[in-house]
C-alpha cells in the first residue's frame, strides 16, 4: 500500500555542476549549449552525488547579467562581469530596483547590485553563514561578505529546444514531427561564423562528463512538498484502520530539459531518483513539455483560472497545438502512474497541470482510489465555460473519487460548472456524473508552524531583525512579497500607497514600503508589469525631501529577486503592516507565515478579499478590494493607527485559524477525504442481484411491512394485479411518483387501500381509505419566479415548454427545434436556478431528459410523515393529523448522517415496522430512501430491509438490483404467492 503523489515537478531534481573559473566553464558561458546559473559553494567532484550537503543552501545575490539576443539568458560567472551587472538599477528619481530585468530596455544608471543585501549584512558576526530553504540562482553570504572569492561551482542546465510560435496548422504539424527538425542546440553555421569553440562540442559530450547531484528542487509546489515531507517525518500518513505507516512515492518531471542529455545519464538520474528518493520520473521531450507547461498551462489555463481571460491569443492553431502537448504530457503521467500502481495504492494528483490525468487513469484502472487537488482558484462557470476544452477538462477531473479545493467558494464553483456544462446532478456536496459519485471537499493548505517558529527564533533571523530595526529606526514598515505577474495587483498596491502618502503627508517620512518580487524567470516574468510598477515607485519616491539614494530614506524599496529566507522572516517579524493585494489567488501561504512571524508585534494584515486565505483569516485580517484604491489607502492608515487591543484581538483570531489549518491538517484531511470517497464508491459499486428466497424468508419472519415503490409511468394491468394481491392488514404499500394528485388517483383508482406519494413526496395519501391528501411541501411561492426564468430560456430555445404542478415545475426540451443548443440552455438553466433558489431549499436536476425544479428532501419528509402516522396508530394512540395540513419534518433532512428512528422497536414495541422494501430506478428522489433503509439496517434499528434498484446501478446506494420493472413485479408476485399459501 503506497500513496502515489503526482505533481508536475518532482521534489528532488538533478543538478549539473562545473568549476566557475575553469576553462570549461568559460567556454560553456560563451556557448548556447547550456544555461549557467549563479556560482555556489564548493561541492564534491564525484560523478553522482546522492545527498545535498546542508551547507549548500544559500541566498540570492543580485549579480545577474543577461546576454542579449539569446533564446534564453545566460547567467555570468564569477566577479569578472559584475561591473557590468544590470541586476540593480537606480533611475533618475533614485528608486533602487534590485535584481531587475527592466534595465535591459532602459537607460537607467546601473549601480551596485549588492547594495540591499550589504545593508542587511553589515555588522553580522563573521562566524555566521546565512542560508535559505533552497531556491536556485543563489550564493552563500559568508562572514558578512560575498563568498565569490572562494573557489566556486556553477549550476548549469541543458538548453531546452525552441518552441516556435505556431501560426498555422502546417507549421504545427512540421514542428510536431521529427525532433531532428529543430536542432536548437546545434548551431553549426553560426558556430563556424562566430568561432564559438565551446559550441563545437556536442551536447551529449558535454553532459556525459559533467558531475551531477540530486538536490531539493527549486521548481514546483514547494508548499505541498514541505507539507508532505512534514507529514512523513511525523508519521501521519498511515492506514486509518491499522495505523501502519504508508510510504509515499512521487511521480513528476525532473525539472531540467532532457533531449540533449545522453541516454545513460538520463537512465542514471531516473534510477537514482527511484532508488534513493522514491520518485518515478516522467521523461518527456522538451517540445512537449514547453508546449504543455509554458504555452497551455501558463498562457491559457493559469490566467483564465484567475479570471484573466487571454484576449489576444497568438492564433487558434497555437491553442490547438499547445492543447495537444498538454494531452500528451498528461497521458505520459498517467502511463507512469499506471505502470507503478498496485492494488490498494492511493493516487493523489495535484494542480491544473494534470487535470486530465484522473480520467486517463480511471479508463485503465476503474477501481483505483484517486484524488485530485487544485491548488489555485476555480472560477465561476461563466468564466470556465470560456475554455475551448471545458468539457474534457471537467471530465478529466471527474475521473477522481475525491476532488479537493482550497475554499468552499471554489468547491461551489466547480459543482455549479459541472452542473451547467456536464449537466451532472449535485447531491450532498458531490457530483453524480456518468453513473459515478465524485465527492467534492474544501481543505485549505497550511504551513509547518514548528519549523517556521524554529527559523524565526534562529540566531540568523534575530541578527537580521536587529539590523532592520537599526536601518529603519523610527519608521513604520509595510512589507509585501509577491510574484511579479498580472494577478498580484502590485500596481494597485503602489497606487494605493501613493494616494495614502499624498492624502497623509505627515506619514511621508515615517513609512516605508518594502516590495519583494519573486519569480524572475522568463516564463513568469512580466516586463510590462515591472516597468509599470517601477514608474509608480519612482513617482512615490520623488515625494521625499531627503536623499533617496539610501534605502532607509526611500518610500518604496522594490526588490525584484528572492532574498535570503532569514532576511525575509526578519522583515516579516519587524513589519508594522503586511499587505497582500492579489486580484485572485488560491491560498496565499505568505500571510500565514506573517501571522506566525508577528507573534511579538501583533501587526495588522491587509489582505485581498479575493484570495483563498481571506476566507480563512477573515476574522482578524483587514480585508481590502485591490481595485478600490481609495479604500485600500484608507485601510493602510487604519492599520497604522489601529489600537493595541484590536491588534491583539485580530492576531489571536488569525493565529487560531493558522494553527487549526496547518500543513498536517491538510494532508490528513485530504487523504481521509479520498479514502472516504473511495469507500462510498466501492459500496455503491457492490450492488448484488436480488435474492428472492432471502426476501421471502425475511418477509415470513416479520410482522409489519412497509413497501415504497417508485413508479414513473402509468401502471400496467399486471402491476395493478400484483399490488392488489400484496396489500393486506400488515402490508403498507405506497407508490411514489411525480404525477399530480388528481392524475395519481385516477391511475390507481382500481387498487383498494393503496397509499400514494404524489409529486415526488410533496403530498401523501394514506392507505387507510381516506379521500384526503396531506401537504408535505413547505412553500411554493418560488414557482412564479422560476417560470419567469424559464420563459426567457424558451425564447432562446423554440419548441421547449414547461409544465406547472402544485409543487414543481418540469421543463421539457424533447420538441426543441435547435437540438444543438439544448445542452447549453439546460445546463445554464440548472445553474441559474440552483444559484438563485438554492438557499431557499429549491433544487433543479435533470432526470431522463426532463428538468425538474422542486423543493429538496420531499421524499424524506414524506416517509417521515408516514412512519410518524404508523407510530401513533399502531401504539394505540389517536392520530390527530388533519387533511391538507402543513406537516413539518420532525428531524433535519439528512438521511445518511441523521437517519430517522421510526423503525426502532423501542418506540412501539408491540407492533413495530420490522420489514421495509424500497425500490425504483436511481434518481435524486429515491436514492435518499435507499440510504435510510441501509442505515437503519446497519444500526440494527430495522430488522429486515431491502433497497432494490433497477436500471443503472452505478453510484446507487441500493444494496440489490433487478434488471427492470418486470423483474420487480416478479418479486412482488412471489411474495404474495408465498403469503397466500401460508394463509
From TrEMBL:
Keyword Ubl conjugation: no
Low complexity: bias regions: 73-93
GO CC annotation, single: alpha,alpha-trehalose-phosphate synthase complex (UDP-forming)
Domain of life: Eukaryota
GO biological process: trehalose biosynthetic process
Composition skew (Polar residues), residue ranges: 61-72, 94-106
Keywords: Phosphoprotein
Disordered as annotated region, ranges: 45-106
UniProt GO MF annotations: alpha,alpha-trehalose-phosphate synthase (UDP-forming) activity; trehalose-phosphatase activity
Protein name: Uncharacterized protein
Organism: Henningerozyma blattae (strain ATCC 34711 / CBS 6284 / DSM 70876 / NBRC 10599 / NRRL Y-10934 / UCD 77-7)
Organism lineage string: Eukaryota, Fungi, Dikarya, Ascomycota, Saccharomycotina
Amino acid at each position: 500500500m503506497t500513496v502515489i503523489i503526482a505533481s508536475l515537478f518532482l521534489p528532488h531534481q538533478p543538478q549539473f555542476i562545473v568549476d566557475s573559473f575553469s576553462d570549461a566553464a568559460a567556454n560553456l558561458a560563451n556557448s548556447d549549449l547550456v544555461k549557467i546559473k549563479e556560482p555556489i559553494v564548493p561541492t564534491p567532484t564525484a560523478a553522482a552525488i546522492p545527498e545535498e550537503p546542508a551547507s549548500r543552501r544559500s541566498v540570492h545575490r543580485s549579480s545577474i547579467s543577461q546576454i542579449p539576443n539569446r533564446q534564453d539568458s545566460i547567467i555570468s560567472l564569477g566577479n569578472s562581469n559584475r561591473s557590468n551587472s544590470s541586476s540593480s538599477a537606480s533611475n533618475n528619481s533614485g528608486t533602487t530596483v534590485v535584481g531587475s530585468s527592466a534595465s535591459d530596455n532602459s537607460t537607467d544608471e546601473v549601480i551596485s547590485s549588492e547594495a540591499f543585501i550589504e545593508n542587511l549584512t553589515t555588522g553580522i558576526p563573521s562566524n555566521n553563514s546565512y542560508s535559505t530553504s533552497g531556491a536556485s540562482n543563489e550564493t552563500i553570504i559568508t562572514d558578512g561578505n560575498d563568498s565569490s572569492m572562494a573557489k566556486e561551482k556553477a549550476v548549469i542546465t541543458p538548453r531546452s529546444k525552441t518552441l516556435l510560435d505556431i501560426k498555422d496548422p502546417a507549421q504545427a504539424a512540421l514542428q510536431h514531427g521529427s525532433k531532428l527538425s529543430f536542432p536548437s542546440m546545434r548551431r553549426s553555421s553560426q558556430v563556424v561564423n562566430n568561432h564559438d569553440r565551446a559550441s563545437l562540442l556536442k551536447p551529449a559530450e558535454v553532459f556525459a562528463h559533467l558531475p551531477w547531484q540530486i538536490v531539493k528542487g527549486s521548481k514546483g509546489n514547494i508548499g505541498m512538498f514541505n507539507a508532505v515531507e512534514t507529514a512523513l517525518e511525523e508519521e501521519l500518513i498511515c492506514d486509518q484502520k491499522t495505523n501502519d505507516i504508508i510510504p509515499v512515492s512521487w511521480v513528476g518531471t525532473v525539472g531540467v530539459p532532457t533531449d540533449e542529455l545522453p541516454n545513460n545519464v538520463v537512465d542514471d538520474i531516473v534510477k537514482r531518483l527511484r532508488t534513493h528518493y522514491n520518485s518515478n520520473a516522467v521523461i518527456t521531450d522538451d517540445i512537449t513539455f514547453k508546449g504543455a507547461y509554458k504555452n497551455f498551462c501558463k498562457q491559457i489555463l493559469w490566467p483564465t483560472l484567475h479570471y484573466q481571460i487571454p484576449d489576444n491569443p497568438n492564433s487558434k492553431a497555437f491553442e490547438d497545438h499547445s492543447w495537444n502537448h498538454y494531452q500528451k504530457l498528461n497521458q505520459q503521467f498517467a502511463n507512469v502512474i499506471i505502470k507503478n500502481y498496485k492494488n490498494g495504492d492511493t493516487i493523489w494528483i495535484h494542480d491544473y497541470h494534470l487535470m486530465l490525468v484522473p480520467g486517463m487513469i480511471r479508463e485503465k484502472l476503474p477501481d483505483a482510489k484517486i484524488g485530485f487537488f487544485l491548488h489555485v482558484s476555480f472560477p465561476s462557470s461563466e468564466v470556465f465555460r470560456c475554455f475551448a476544452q471545458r468539457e474534457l477538462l471537467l471530465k478529466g477531473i471527474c475521473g477522481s473519487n475525491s476532488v479537493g479545493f482550497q475554499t468552499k467558494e471554489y468547491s461551489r464553483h466547480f459543482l455549479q460548472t459541472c452542473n451547467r456544462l456536464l449537466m451532472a446532478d449535485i447531491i450532498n456536496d458531490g457530483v453524480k456524473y456518468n453513473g459515478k459519485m465524485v465527492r467534492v471537499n474544501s481543505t485549505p493548505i497550511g504551513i509547518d508552524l514548528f519549523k517556521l517558529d524554529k527559523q524565526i527564533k534562529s540566531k540568523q533571523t534575530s541578527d537580521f531583525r536587529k539590523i532592520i530595526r537599526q536601518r529603519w529606526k523610527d519608521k513604520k514598515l509595510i512589507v509585501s512579497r509577491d510574484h511579479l505577474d498580472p494577478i498580484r495587483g502590485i500596481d494597485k498596491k503602489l497606487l494605493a500607497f501613493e494616494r495614502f502618502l499624498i492624502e497623509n503627508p505627515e506619514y511621508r517620512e515615517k513609512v516605508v514600503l518594502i516590495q519583494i518580487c519573486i519569480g524572475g524567470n522568463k516564463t513568469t516574468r512580466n516586463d510590462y508589469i515591472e516597468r509599470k510598477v517601477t514608474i509608480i515607485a519612482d513617482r512615490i519616491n520623488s515625494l521625499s525631501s531627503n536623499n533617496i539614494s539610501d534605502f532607509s530614506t526611500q518610500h518604496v524599496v522594490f526588490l525584484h529577486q528572492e532574498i535570503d529566507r532569514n532576511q525575509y522572516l526578519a522583515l516579516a517579524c519587524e513589519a508594522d503592516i503586511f499587505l497582500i493585494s492579489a486580484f485572485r489567488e488560491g491560498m496565499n501561504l505568505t500571510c500565514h507565515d506573517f501571522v506566525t512571524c508577528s507573534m511579538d508585534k501583533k501587526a495588522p494584515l491587509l489582505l485581498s478579499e479575493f484570495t483563498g486565505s481571506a476566507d480563512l483569516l477573515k476574522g482578524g485580517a483587514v480585508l481590502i478590494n485591490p481595485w478600490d484604491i481609495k479604500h485600500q489607502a484608507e485601510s493602510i492608515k487604519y492599520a497604522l493607527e489601529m489600537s493595541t487591543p484590536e491588534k491583539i484581538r485580530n492576531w489571536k483570531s488569525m493565529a487560531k485559524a493558522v494553527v487549526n489549518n496547518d500543513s498536517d491538517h491538510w494532508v490528513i484531511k485530504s487523504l481521509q477525504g479520498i479514502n472516504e470517497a473511495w469507500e462510498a464508491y466501492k459500496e455503491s459499486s457492490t450492488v448484488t442481484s436480488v435474492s428472492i428466497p432471502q426476501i421471502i424468508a425475511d418477509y415470513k419472519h416479520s410482522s409489519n411491512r412497509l413497501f415504497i415503490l417508485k413508479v414513473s409511468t402509468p401502471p400496467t394491468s399486471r402491476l395493478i394485479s400484483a399490488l392488489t394481491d400484496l396489500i393486506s392488514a400488515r402490508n403498507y404499500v405506497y407508490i411514489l411518483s411525480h404525477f399530480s394528485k388528481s392524475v395519481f388517483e385516477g391511475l390507481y383508482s382500481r387498487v383498494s387501500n393503496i397509499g400514494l406519494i404524489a409529486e415526488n413526496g410533496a403530498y401523501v395519501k394514506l392507505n387507510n381509505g381516506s379521500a384526503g391528501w396531506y401537504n408535505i411541501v413547505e412553500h411554493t411561492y418560488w414557482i412564479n419566479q422560476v417560470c419567469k426564468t424559464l420563459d426567457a430560456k424558451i425564447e432562446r430555445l423554440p419548441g421547449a415548454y414547461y409544465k406547472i404542478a402544485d409543487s414543481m415545475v418540469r421543463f421539457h426540451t424533447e420538441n426543441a427545434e435547435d437540438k444543438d443548443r439544448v445542452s447549453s440552455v439546460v445546463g445554464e438553466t440548472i445553474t441559474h436556478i440552483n444559484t438563485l433558489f438554492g438557499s431557499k431549499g429549491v433544487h433543479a436536476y435533470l432526470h431522463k431528459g426532463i428538468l425538474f425544479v422542486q423543493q429538496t428532501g420531499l421524499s424524506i419528509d414524506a416517509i417521515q410523515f408516514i412512519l410518524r402516522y404508523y407510530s401513533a396508530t399502531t401504539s394505540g394512540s389517536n392520530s390527530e393529523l388533519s387533511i391538507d395540513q402543513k406537516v413539518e419534518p420532525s428531524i433535519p433532512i439528512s438521511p445518511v448522517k441523521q437517519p430517522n428512528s421510526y423503525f426502532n422497536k423501542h418506540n412501539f414495541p408491540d407492533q413495530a415496522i420490522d420489514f421495509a422494501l424500497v425500490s425504483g430506478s436511481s434518481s435524486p428522489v429515491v436514492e435518499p430512501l435507499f440510504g435510510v433503509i441501509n442505515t437503519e439496517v446497519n444500526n440494527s434499528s430495522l430488522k429486515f430491509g431491502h433497497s432494490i434498484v433497477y436500471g443503472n446501478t452505478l453510484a446507487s446506494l441500493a444494496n440489490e438490483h433487478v434488471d427492470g420493472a418486470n423483474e420487480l413485479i416478479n418479486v412482488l408476485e412471489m411474495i404474495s404467492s408465498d403469503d397466500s399459501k401460508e394463509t
